[in-house]
Amino acid sequence: MMSGAVFGYRGLVREVVRRLTAENFLGKKPRVIATGGYAKLIAQNLPEIEAVPPNLTLEGLRIVANRNIRSKTVS
Asked: What's the pTM value of the predicted model, to 2 decimals?
């Protein structure tokens, strides 16, 4: 079951990246970054995925929170 899930998601990611690249990037290679709980596992052996930053979502939330705090104190 686990192998099927991992290989299935890898195939899904590969196909989505292939189609998005063909439709939106006109032959250029997009930067693909994986996030989420199983991102590291899914990203293995997928050359399409450039990076798997473990705290990307948390960093994004921190940045948004800091901007919201600053904008309220400036008003």
From this structure: 0.69
Secondary-structure percent of the chain, ordered helix, strand, coil, rounded to 5: 65, 5, 35
CA-based radius of gyration for the chain? 17
Select from 36, 34, 37 the least CA-distant residue to 14: 34
pLDDT in tens, 16-62: 999 999 998 887 889 999 998 889 999 998 999 999 998 998 999 99
Question: Which residue has tokens 């989420």?
Answer: 36
- CB distance 65 to 29 below 8 Å: no
- CA angle 18/44/54 to nearest 5° reads 100
